[in-house]
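Table S7 (text form). Paired inputs.
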Amino acid sequence: MAGRCRLCTSNDEDAVIEHVAAYMWESRMERVEDRTPWDDAGATWKTAFREMALAAKQALTISPLHAVEADAQLTDKAA
């Protein structure tokens, strides 16, 4: 299945968000001397990166007409 877009083909939104959040975290850790793996990131950091991952997904997949609905979803996921 090489070449298939995970964002476009996944049926598990939570898994996609988790994957993107972990990937974003790990990409930042490359620049940090005392590297912390995603599994040890802590609840606050994981929540922040999951919110950023959800916002990135929404920016790529939701039309501007649905922006208000997307903002409500982001707020609900953070709570």
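Next pair, protein 2 of 2.
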Amino acid sequence: MALYGESITFVTFSFIPPAMPTEFAEIRETQRALRQHSQWLLSCPDDHVPDVYLEVIRATERMFCLEQELMESFAFPVRQLHLEQHARVLQGLHCVHGEVMRGAADRGRLAGGRLLMDWLHLHRDTLDASFDIWVDYCRSGLIDPYDPGSRDPDSPGPLTAH
């Protein structure tokens, strides 16, 4: 399908390591639902766009909530930056929602079908990838996210390996 003369490629959300199925299973399911809603949004009849767009918003909110809980459980040190990006995306989706409810199907398709998927691809390759690495380090015992002694005393940022 083409929108504005460009072909659409959907994100595969491969940042979740297969070795952690329990903790990430709900995020995977939510991502799957989000992809399905976004795909349907691009091709559904105009009168269905408001309902499908709302489902895109709900799935996005759910996915971000699950990610936040997981980041907190692993004491991810750059969690605030990550969550600020989520907040900006949600703000954008909510700003367009009123227009979509008033019949601007094209705006909903653009925001929830195209731009959101493009942003998620970039987000996955940057911030989600750094969280993936953090979890791997925590899981392998290279760092203890709850041990203040593993922090570099001259830096408020990354932890050092022990």
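The beta strands are 2-3, 6-7.
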